[in-house]
Q: What sequence folds into this?
């Protein structure tokens, strides 16, 4: 092929010149950014207290640190990924930095030249759970997974089944007497899959139905009646129907703009209404999820009535905004009820929407009421868990990672997190921690754990949840009648296959 | 020689042709974030046919494409071109420039403006205007999602046809029009009997071209209603595919099923693209080089 | 020379175009006031622009930074837009020149491919592109988005550039050579000035296409470190922590609009050419 002599070198020359010009730009585009890392040094008080509190742990740790020390010198980096997405939950990561600091002091005391370093990330909004998890799967795929990965317990099934994480039974057995005996036993149920333990609980919470005491007072309730409301709910004497009626009264009298608020985006809270109507989510025996037809029918009818008959939930709640349609109206007293979570209290206080005093004065909290007389009130818990990835094992740092998890599973450190973010204790001894005890809210909601349900550790749970969410959106907007909604829901769930879901009447 | 074509050719192969093939292949798997190639045969396609949501989304897509096309991408485009070539040029040009603005505005900003304009508060633009007529404020996105979606897309979409029609209208020899005027034809008669017949080809081209564009576009819908409100009210085919693959709470993704939905569009896109190439004689543009070197 | 018979048509056009004018007025009114009623600003203020001081957008009542620094976002967006436009310029002028000047086997096949792909919607390939980026380790990098943008715009760019090279006659180059120019000089003095319009078109098209890109950034970028303006505006509009005053959002949006407005005012002829040659989004 003939070519025109000059054009090629000239083109190359010109390309080169332009190339140099844009080189800087590309260079900028490609240069790695410093990861968002918070450096925290442990207050020495923390360290003293810890050391005093846990001599036994120290012995165990010494054993392992000796093993580490014999490894010679160098730095062992443990990559930890955690998420809020609420900012007050930052101790999910900070505690690791405190623990590593402590561990390094021990190593120094033992004369070892090995040091442990935390390469940590704590994600906050606008990064949401879905995005966080996606990032993990992608990082895993490219071999850059964290060693310790914080996630929701419902992922245990999926993560274990696909080989992302390693079982921890042997470790937990080994360290049982150090700290794990102290873990509130129901939490272990949340981290099991196919008979094995795959993770260590990090925190848990309850999802209360918050109410405005000041609004109830204006409705003519006495202080006594208001104080008794949570108790009445507990006994099943105040049902979801009563909730609608009280809310309607408040709206009709113009005391509030909205009767009941619920989250504005996808989430698991909606299942509480189904549970309140006696629905089952999980069949432990077969390891399958459950679809209780009668309970779903009533649940869909309740949501329909709440929006269209009682007009206490806005038909646009699902296309709403977190601040304008959730936090805002409730904290300003423009809504009576809010189906939320314990951590919302932490958010309101830290964001300055309510002071602690205002909260205690005007806000009450109770279980989600029973669907109808004779049924039980409910709440839902979604324990977060620390897992160790298979890539940590392949890198040979699983031992160290587990040691760190053991160190942060500590009454004092975990109380750092629980108190600041309004989550519930995972250890019995944590409940007696002085700071935890100073938080009446946390003590007050502790009883709710007796009424709690976990969401299923099933690989297809995300599908179940999503189908429900879309249907509920349709019911509230008026696109679907309760009957249509039920049929669509049933069809959708049937599509997940009978090996995933048991459909019962 | 090779160095001239290599970069663009390599890019086109790796990021255009290979993805076409990959989309097809992924649609035969149940791939998720574990990125495993579990072949499931035609399962995703069977699911597509029996999926009631896909049915609804299909109808939505037809509604979206044809109303936007008729009202704006062809309809308004034609009206604007005809009017602006018949009024003084400076004024006409000004109007056409304004209609170009939405298209070159970044989509997130443009969508933001609409979201503000249609808010439910009485002070929001739409309701404020209603207020002058003594009407109650309306939650537009909730009550009338489709008109809003069509308006949002239409104000962007009209400019493409507008430019092409205007160019075609301006290329009509002035003698034709002058002769008609001398014969006493009114402006409407001129439009009806001279101009419209002469821009038949551009009309067909714009219609065909924009049909494909609208079928596969979902950016503004994602930004304005994200398929809502309620139960897949404004979800269109391409957006459904996007949601299945990339927007799941809790990280559950369906690349396989999403790819099956995308495959429908890819195949449609290929067929239409080849058809345009033939019908609109783009081949004539492929003249051999004038210079032998 | 606006005659009376034109008036009704001008008025009709004004009505039709009014929504556009109102929308952009709203944007500007919002950015300089505490509140907007319709399009009328209430309580003029410059406080919405205060974030320009250090680039940090603050959520009232918190100290945590939820949003990346505006200046970092600006640099990211510029990096994306400039790289996309320069790469498109280089690759498409290389290919356009070859197709215009050389006769080679596969030439018509290549051109046919470019023409067919030119109307083919690349957005439908999102899932497969995601897979490819991930295999190449380019997920969550600006480079990944850049490469995809360049590749998907390439057929159009080639078509534009080829047209411009076709328009220059060989005679001109030849006569320059006869006049004693070297090959280099002929190319620089004769070929380049004649395709300047084409180069500008491709540059502006590439710049705006990178500057405004939303879907690929949304899908292929997850770190805030690599956010561009489109993500920032999107997050300010929809984020869970949207305590952000609409005035601040509109100020950010206006900054984002600056290059667009400049091109709109001073380079409309190129924009029109892009539109004629280009595939419309909708």
A:
């Amino acid at each position: 092929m003939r070519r025109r002599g000059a054009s090629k070198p000239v083109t190359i020359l010109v390309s080169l010149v332009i190339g140099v010009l844009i080189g800087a730009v590309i260079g900028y585009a490609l240069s790695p950014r410093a990861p968002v890392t918070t450096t925290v040094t442990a207050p020495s008080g923390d360290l003293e207290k810890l050391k005093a509190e846990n001599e036994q742990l120290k012995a165990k740790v010494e054993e392992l640190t000796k093993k580490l020390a014999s490894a010679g010198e160098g730095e062992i980096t443990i990559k930890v990924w955690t998420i809020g997405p609420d900012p007050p939950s930052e101790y999910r990561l900070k505690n690791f930095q405190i623990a590593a600091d402590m561990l390094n002091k021990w190593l120094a005391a033992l004369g070892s030249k090995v040091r442990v370093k935390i390469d940590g990330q704590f994600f906050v909004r606008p990064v949401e759970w879905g995005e966080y998890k996606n990032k993990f799967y992608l990082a895993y795929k490219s071999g850059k997974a964290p060693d310790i990965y914080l996630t929701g317990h419902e992922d245990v099934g999926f993560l274990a089944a696909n080989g992302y994480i390693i079982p921890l039974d042997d470790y937990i057995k080994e360290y049982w007497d150090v700290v794990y005996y102290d873990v509130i036993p129901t939490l272990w149920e949340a981290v099991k899959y196919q008979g094995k333990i795959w993770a260590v609980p990090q925190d848990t919470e309850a999802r209360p139905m918050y109410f405005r005491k000041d609004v109830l007072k204006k409705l003519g309730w006495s202080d006594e009646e208001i104080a008794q409301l949570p108790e009445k709910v507990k006994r099943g004497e105040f049902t979801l129907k009563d909730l609608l009626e009280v809310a309607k009264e408040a709206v009709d009298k113009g005391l509030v703009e909205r009767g009941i608020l619920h989250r504005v985006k996808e989430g698991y809270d909606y299942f509480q209404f189904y549970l309140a109507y006696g629905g089952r989510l999980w069949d432990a025996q077969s390891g399958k999820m459950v679809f209780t037809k009668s309970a779903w029918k009533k649940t869909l009818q309740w949501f329909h009535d709440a929006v269209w008959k009682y007009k206490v939930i806005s038909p646009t709640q699902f296309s709403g905004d977190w601040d304008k349609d959730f936090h805002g109206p409730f904290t300003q007293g423009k809504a009576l009820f809010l189906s939320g979570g314990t951590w919302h209290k932490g958010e309101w206080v830290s964001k300055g929407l309510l002071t602690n005093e205002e909260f205690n004065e005007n806000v009450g909290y109770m279980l989600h009421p029973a669907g109808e007389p004779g049924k039980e009130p409910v709440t839902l818990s979604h324990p977060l868990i620390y897992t160790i990835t298979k890539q940590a094992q392949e890198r040979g740092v699983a031992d160290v990672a587990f040691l760190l998890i053991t160190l942060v599973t500590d009454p004092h450190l975990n109380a750092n997190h629980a108190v600041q973010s309004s989550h519930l204790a995972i250890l019995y001894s944590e409940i007696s921690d002085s700071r935890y005890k100073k938080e009446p809210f946390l003590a007050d909601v502790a009883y709710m754990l007796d009424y709690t349900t976990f969401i299923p550790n099933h690989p297809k749970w995300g599908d179940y949840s999503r189908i429900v969410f879309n249907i509920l959106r349709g019911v509230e907007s008026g696109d679907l009648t309760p009957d249509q909604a039920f049929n669509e829901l049933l069809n959708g769930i049937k599509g997940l296959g009978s090996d995933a879901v048991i459909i019962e009447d | 020689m090779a160095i001239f074509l290599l970069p663009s050719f390599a890019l086109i192969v790796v990021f255009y042709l290979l993805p076409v093939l990959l989309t097809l292949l992924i649609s035969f798997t149940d791939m998720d974030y574990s990125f495993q190639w579990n072949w499931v045969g035609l399962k995703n396609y069977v699911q597509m046919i029996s999926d009631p949501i896909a049915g609804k989304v299909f109808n939505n897509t037809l509604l979206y494409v044809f109303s936007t096309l008729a009202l704006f991408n062809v309809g308004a485009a034609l009206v604007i071109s005809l009017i602006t070539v018949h009024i003084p040029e400076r004024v006409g040009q000004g109007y056409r420039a304004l209609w170009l603005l939405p298209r070159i505005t970044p989509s997130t900003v443009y969508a933001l403006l609409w979201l503000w304009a249609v808010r439910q508060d009485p002070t929001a633009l739409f309701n404020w205007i209603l207020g002058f007529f003594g009407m109650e404020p309306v939650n537009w996105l909730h009550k009338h999602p489709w008109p809003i979606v069509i308006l949002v897309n239409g104000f962007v979409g009209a400019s493409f046809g507008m430019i092409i029609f205007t160019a075609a209208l301006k290329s009509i020899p002035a003698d034709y029009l002058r002769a008609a005027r001398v014969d006493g034809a009114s402006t409407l008669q001129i439009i009806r009997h001279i101009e419209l017949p002469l821009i038949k080809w551009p009309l067909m081209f714009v219609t065909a071209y924009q049909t494909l564009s609208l079928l596969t576009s979902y950016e503004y819908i994602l930004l304005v209603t994200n398929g809502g409100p309620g139960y897949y009210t404004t979800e269109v085919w391409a957006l459904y595919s996007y949601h299945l693959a990339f927007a799941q709470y809790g990280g559950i993704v369906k690349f396989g099923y999403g790819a099956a939905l995308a495959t429908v569009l890819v195949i449609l896109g290929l067929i239409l693209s080849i058809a345009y190439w033939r019908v609109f004689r783009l081949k004539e543009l492929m003249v051999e080089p004038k210079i032998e070197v | 020379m606006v005659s009376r018979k034109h008036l009704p048509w001008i008025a009709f056009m004004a009505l039709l175009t009014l929504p556009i004018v109102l929308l952009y007025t709203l944007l500007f009114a919002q950015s300089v006031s505490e509140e907007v009623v319709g399009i009328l600003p209430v309580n003029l203020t410059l406080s919405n622009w205060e974030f320009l001081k250090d680039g940090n957008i603050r959520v009232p009542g918190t100290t945590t930074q939820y949003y990346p620094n505006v200046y970092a976002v600006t640099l990211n967006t510029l990096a994306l837009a400039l790289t996309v436009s320069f790469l498109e310029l280089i690759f498409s002028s290389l290919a356009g020149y070859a197709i215009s000047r050389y006769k080679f086997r596969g030439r018509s096949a290549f051109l046919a491919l470019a023409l067919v792909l030119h109307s083919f919607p690349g957005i439908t390939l999102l899932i497969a592109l995601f897979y490819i980026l991930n295999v190449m380790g380019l997920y969550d990098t600006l480079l990944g988005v850049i490469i995809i943008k360049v590749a998907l715009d390439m057929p159009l760019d080639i078509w534009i550039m080829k047209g411009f090279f076709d328009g220059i006659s060989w005679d001109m180059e030849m006569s320059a050579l006869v006049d004693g120019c070297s090959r280099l000089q002929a190319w620089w003095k004769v070929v380049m000035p004649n395709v300047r319009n084409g180069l500008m078109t491709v540059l502006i098209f590439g710049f705006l296409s990178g500057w405004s890109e939303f879907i690929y950034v949304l899908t292929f970028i997850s770190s805030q470190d690599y956010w561009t303006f489109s993500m920032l505006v999107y997050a300010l509009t929809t984020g869970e922590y949207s305590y952000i005053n609409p005035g601040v959002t509109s100020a950010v949006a206006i900054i984002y609009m600056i290059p667009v407005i400049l091109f709109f005012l001073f380079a409309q002829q190129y924009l029109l050419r892009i539109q004629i040659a280009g595939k419309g989004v909708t």
The mean pLDDT of chain B is 88.
